[in-house]
Amino acid sequence: GGKVPLEDKIPLVGIHWRLRVIPGDIMTPGGGALLTAITIQTLADLGYEVDVSKADPYTLRGAAQGDARGGGADAEGSVAELFADDVIQGPVVVVDTDGRVVRVIRP
């Protein structure tokens, strides 16, 4: 199923968000300055109480959407590469803290 795009470049495989997909987030290699809703929600998944409304504004990069700075390409002029498993295809099942399904978001 869908997942957060983890870094796939050696030696950082699977321990940070993929830099070319979520540049600037504190969970990317080198640590950026953005605290995105993705990172905040991950903390909620680990059991922390969070306020996603405090997330820094961010738009997922891609050719159609542009990057977080409003352009369509990164500093080197290349567009972020997204793979089929980088984005949740759905449905997304939302559960409460007791593990009960409270909502299903269809694609």
Note the topology:
Layout: H1 37-45, E1 92-95, E2 101-105
Antiparallel strand pairs: 1-2
Polypeptide structure, described:
- This protein is mostly loops and 107 residues long.
- The chain contains 1 helix and 2 strands, in the order H-E-E.
- It has one helix at 37-45, and strands at residues 92-95, 101-105.
- A two-stranded antiparallel ribbon has the order 1-2.
- A hairpin with a 5-residue loop joins strand 1 and strand 2.
- The protein starts with 36 loop residues before the first helix and ends with a strand.
Task: Based on the model shown, name its key terms.
about 110 residues, little secondary structure, 1 helix, 2 strands
User: So how many helices?
Assistant: 1
* Beta-strand content bin: 5-15%
Number of strands: 2
Give the termini distance in whole angstroms: 13 Å
What level of helicity do the residues show? under 10%
Would you tell me the structural class of the helices and strands?
little secondary structure
SSE order: HEE
List low-pLDDT spans.
63-78
Mean pLDDT across residues: 74
Assembly of the depicted chains: single chain
Radius of gyration: 15 Å
| Major sheet characteristics | 2 strands, antiparallel
Strand order of the largest sheet: 1-2
What would you call the shape? globular
